[in-house]
Design brief:
The complex is a heterodimer. By secondary structure, chain A is mainly α. Chain A is about 70% helix and about 5% strand. In chain A, α2 packs across α12. Chain B folds into 2 domains: about 150 residues, 3-Layer(aba) Sandwich (Rossmann fold), CATH 3.40.50; about 140 residues, Response regulator (Rossmann fold, 3-Layer(aba) Sandwich). The longest helix of chain B is centred in the first third of the chain and has 24 residues. Chain B is elongated and about 65 Å long. Classes of the chains: A mainly alpha, B alpha/beta. Chains A and B meet through α2, α10 and α12 of A and β7, α8 and α9 of B.
Chain lengths: ~325, ~350
C-alpha cells in the first residue's frame, strides 16, 4: 500500500481538522472515563450533551451562515430578546402559543433585516450583524421589556416547560431537539437546492452568481433561518432555567458558538465543513466542561485548559494541513 | 344614603390629601425652624447615579427612590447606565467628575474597578455614596450588605440542614458569581471560617457561573450527577440561583437538595421561589430598605455638605432578613412595580 495518494501528497496529509478534533475528544473522554468516578455513566454522558445542547443548536444556525461565507453575530442577542419578549407576553396573560408565534415573528424580522442589509445593501455580514445585534437588543430592551431578567411564569407547568426540561425515554428533550435540528440541517444543506447553493456561494460567490444561483435571496434565507433556529435555542434555554436573562446578549457566548463551529473544521472562508463538524466541536467543549466540573477545577484554570486544548487542535491542523495557494481563499479570516 | 356619605367622606379625604401634598411645595407652609432650610438645601442640586446596569431589581428600586426625592425636592437626577460594562461605567464616572455633581452615587461591579475614580471624585470635592458592593476606596457613605455576614448566615443555615444531626451526607456545593466581586472575595472566606468548626460538612464543588442562570444550570446538573448524595447548594445571587433550582427540579430532587440563596428580596426572585420550594433559605438584603437608606443619605449629604469629601465614611450595613417557608410573612418581600409606582 502506497503512502502516497494520486496527487503525490502523503496519505497522512489528508488527516482533516475534524478528525483531529475527534481524536482529541476521544482521548479526553477516555482519560476522564478512566480517572473520574462518576464520568462514564449514562446519566452523566446525557447531561454532558444536555449542557452543551443550546450551544450546539446555536452552532448549527451559525454553521450554515459561515458555510455560505457569512457570519451571524446577532444570533445571541436575537435569541435573548425574542424569547424574553415571548415570556413577557405570556406572563401578561397572552396564550402561550400566540406569545411564541409573536416572539418567533420578532426573531424572523430581525433575521430578515440582517439578510436584506447583507444581500441587497451589500454590507459585509460581520458588520451588519454586529450592528443589528446591538440595535435589536437596545430597541427591544428599551421599547418592549420591563426588566433585564424575565421569569417563566405562565405556561411553566405545561408542554411549553417540557421543551427545555422534559425527557423522552430518559433522554433530556434538549438533547433530542439538538439531534433533530442537526438532522434537519444536514438534510437542508446536503439534499436541498438552497443548501447546495449555500455551499456554492461559500466556495465561490462570483462563480455561483454566474452559474445562475439566486445569491441574494439565498443570503436572506440564511439569516432568517439562523434567526429561527436561534429562537428555538432560546426557548430551550428559557424553559430549562425558568427565565431568560437578556444580559446574555452582551456576553461572550457568541464567540463560544463560533468556536464550536470552527474547531470542528468549518472554515470561516466558507464552502467547507459539515454538520458533523459542529457536533464534534460541541462534544469536545461539552466533555471538557463536564470533566473539569466533576474534578472541581478552579474557574480561571478551566478557561486556560479549555483554550490550550483548542489551541493545540488548531496548531495540529495547521501543521498537518498547511495553507498553500490552493487552500487559502480570498476573504479568509 | 350610606354610599353617598361614603363618597363624600372619600372626596374630603382626597381633597385634604391633595391640599397637604400641594402645601409641601407652596410657600404657605409654616416654618417649623427646620423644614424650609432643609427644602432649600435640596432644591436645584445635582445628583448622579452610575449603577452596574439598570433593568434589574436592585438598581431599579434604588433609582425609584432617588427619582421620587428628585421630583419632590427639585434636585436634578442623572442616571448613566453602563449596562454591565466596567469600561463604560468608568467613563461615565470620569465624565461626571468633570460635571461636578453635588453627590455621586456609584455601584461598583468589582472591588478595584472604581477605587481610583472614587479618590478622584473626593479630591474634586464630590461626596461619593457606594451602593451594595464595596469599592477599594470608602468614599463618604457605604449602603449595602455585609457579604461576609450574609455568607456566615447562609453557611449556618446549610450546617443546620446538612450537618451531623440532619441525617444527610454533609456534602455541599458553592455557586459563585464573578470571582473579583466582593460577594466571592468575602463570601468564600466566611464559608470556610464557619466550616472550620463543622468538619461534618464539606464542600465537594466550588464553581463560578458569571451570574448567569444557564451556566449555573449546566454546572449544577453535572455536580448533581457526580455527587448523587449532595445535600445543598450555597448560591450567591437569586437571579443566578434559579438555574441551580431548575437543575435540581430536573433531577427530581426538589426538597432533597437544598438551595440557600441571597439577593435583594424582590417578590419574584425571593418569596415566590421560597413559596415554590425552589429555594430553601434566602438571605435578603432588602433593596427596598436600601433605596430608602440611599434617599436619606443623599438628602443628608445635600443638606450638610462634608467639609472635605471622603474623609469620614458612614457605614450603613443593611439589616438582613432570613426568609424560609416558616418566616414567609406578608411583606417579607417587596414588589418592583409597586416600588416604582408608589416609592420605596
Amino acid at each position: 500500500m502506497s503512502l502516497f495518494a494520486a496527487s503525490g501528497k502523503p496519505a497522512w496529509r489528508y488527516v482533516q481538522q475534524e478528525n483531529i478534533v475527534i481524536a482529541i475528544t476521544a482521548i479526553v473522554f477516555l482519560g476522564f472515563s478512566v480517572t473520574l468516578n462518576n464520568f462514564l455513566t449514562t446519566s452523566n454522558v446525557l447531561s454532558l450533551i444536555q449542557n452543551v445542547a443550546i450551544l450546539g443548536i446555536l452552532g448549527l444556525a451559525m454553521a450554515q451562515a459561515i458555510i455560505g461565507r457569512g457570519i451571524d453575530l446577532s444570533i445571541v442577542a436575537n435569541m435573548a430578546v425574542s424569547v424574553a419578549a415571548t415570556l413577557q407576553l405570556a406572563n401578561g396573560g397572552m396564550p402561550i402559543a400566540l406569545a411564541i408565534a409573536l416572539g418567533l415573528a420578532l426573531a424572523l424580522v430581525i433575521g430578515l433585516i440582517n439578510g436584506m442589509l447583507i444581500a441587497y445593501v451589500e454590507i459585509p455580514a460581520i458588520f451588519a450583524t454586529l450592528a443589528m445585534g446591538t440595535a435589536a437588543y437596545g430597541f427591544v430592551r428599551a421599547a418592549l421589556l420591563n426588566d433585564n431578567l424575565i421569569y417563566l411564569k405562565a405556561g411553566g407547568d405545561g408542554w411549553f416547560k417540557w421543551i427545555g426540561s422534559g425527557q423522552i425515554v430518559g433522554i433530556p428533550s434538549s438533547v433530542v431537539l439538538f439531534g433533530i435540528v442537526a438532522a434537519l440541517m444536514h438534510v437542508f444543506l446536503h439534499h436541498s437546492l438552497p443548501g447546495r447553493f449555500i455551499y456554492a456561494m461559500g466556495d465561490n460567490p462570483l462563480a455561483a452568481r454566474t452559474t445562475g444561483v439566486p445569491v441574494r435571496p439565498t443570503i436572506v434565507l440564511q439569516y432568517v433561518l439562523s434567526a429561527g433556529v436561534a429562537f428555538l435555542a432560546g426557548i430551550v434555554m428559557a424553559t430549562s432555567v425558568d427565565s431568560m436573562e437578556t444580559r446574555i446578549a452582551r456576553s461572550n457566548l457568541v464567540y463560544d458558538v463560533i468556536l464550536v463551529v470552527v474547531i470542528g473544521g468549518i472554515g470561516l472562508s466558507g464552502g467547507k465543513g459539515k454538520i458533523r463538524s459542529v457536533l464534534v466541536g460541541t462534544l469536545l467543549i461539552g466533555t471538557l466542561l463536564n470533566g473539569m466540573t466533576i474534578m472541581d477545577v478552579q474557574y480561571t484554570l478551566q478557561s486556560i485548559i479549555k483554550s490550550l486544548i483548542l489551541l493545540v487542535a488548531i496548531i495540529v491542523d495547521s501543521l498537518v494541513n498547511p495553507r498553500d495557494e490552493q487552500t487559502s481563499q480570498q476573504g479568509d479570516i | 344614603m350610606k354610599s353617598t356619605l361614603k363618597k363624600l367622606g372619600f372626596a374630603l379625604l382626597l381633597a385634604a390629601a391633595t391640599a397637604s401634598f400641594a402645601s409641601f411645595a407652596t410657600a404657605d407652609e409654616p416654618d417649623d425652624g427646620l423644614v424650609k432650610g432643609a427644602n432649600a438645601a435640596l432644591k436645584g442640586k445635582k445628583v448622579a447615579f452610575v449603577p452596574i446596569a439598570m433593568g434589574f431589581d436592585l438598581t431599579e428600586a434604588w433609582a425609584a427612590g432617588l427619582k421620587q426625592d428628585a421630583a419632590l425636592y427639585g434636585y436634578e437626577l442623572t442616571i448613566r447606565d453602563p449596562n454591565w460594562s466596567v469600561d463604560a461605567g468608568a467613563q461615565a464616572i470620569t465624565q461626571l467628575i468633570a460635571e461636578k455633581p453635588d453627590v455621586l452615587v456609584i455601584h461598583p461591579p468589582e472591588i478595584q474597578a472604581y477605587t481610583r475614580l472614587v479618590q478622584r471624585a473626593n479630591a474634586a470635592g464630590i461626596p461619593v455614596v457606594t451602593m451594595n458592593l464595596k469599592s477599594g476606596a470608602n468614599g463618604d457613605a457605604f449602603i449595602g450588605a455585609d457579604w461576609y455576614d450574609i455568607a456566615v448566615k447562609q453557611t449556618n443555615a446549610v450546617v443546620k440542614l446538612c450537618g451531623k444531626d440532619s441525617g444527610k451526607s454533609g456534602k455541599i456545593a458553592v455557586m459563585q458569581g464573578v470571582l473579583t466581586n466582593p460577594t466571592s472575595q468575602y463570601g468564600i472566606q466566611a464559608i470556610q471560617d464557619v466550616l472550620k468548626n463543622h468538619p461534618d460538612v464539606q464542600i465537594v464543588s466550588n464553581q463560578a457561573a458569571d451570574w448567569d442562570a444557564s451556566k449555573a444550570h449546566a454546572i449544577a446538573t453535572t455536580v448533581l450527577k457526580a455527587n448523587p448524595d449532595l445535600c445543598a447548594f450555597i448560591g450567591m445571587w437569586d437571579n443566578m440561583d434559579v438555574g441551580v433550582a431548575a437543575a435540581i427540579k430536573e433531577a427530581g430532587k426538589t426538597g432533597q437538595v437544598y438551595v440557600v440563596s441571597s439577593g435583594g428580596g424582590n417578590q419574584a426572585s425571593a418569596c415566590d421561589n421560597i413559596a415554590s420550594g425552589a429555594f430553601t433559605t434566602y438571605i435578603s438584603y432588602d433593596a427596598k430598605g436600601q433605596a430608602r437608606d440611599l434617599m436619606m443619605t443623599v438628602r443628608s449629604l445635600l443638606e450638610v455638605k462634608p467639609e472635605s469629601a471622603g474623609v469620614h465614611t458612614e457605614a450603613l450595613y443593611t439589616p438582613l432578613k432570613t426568609i424560609t417557608k416558616d418566616t414567609l410573612y406578608t411583606g417579607a418581600c417587596w414588589s418592583l412595580p409597586d416600588v416604582q409606582k408608589y416609592g420605596p
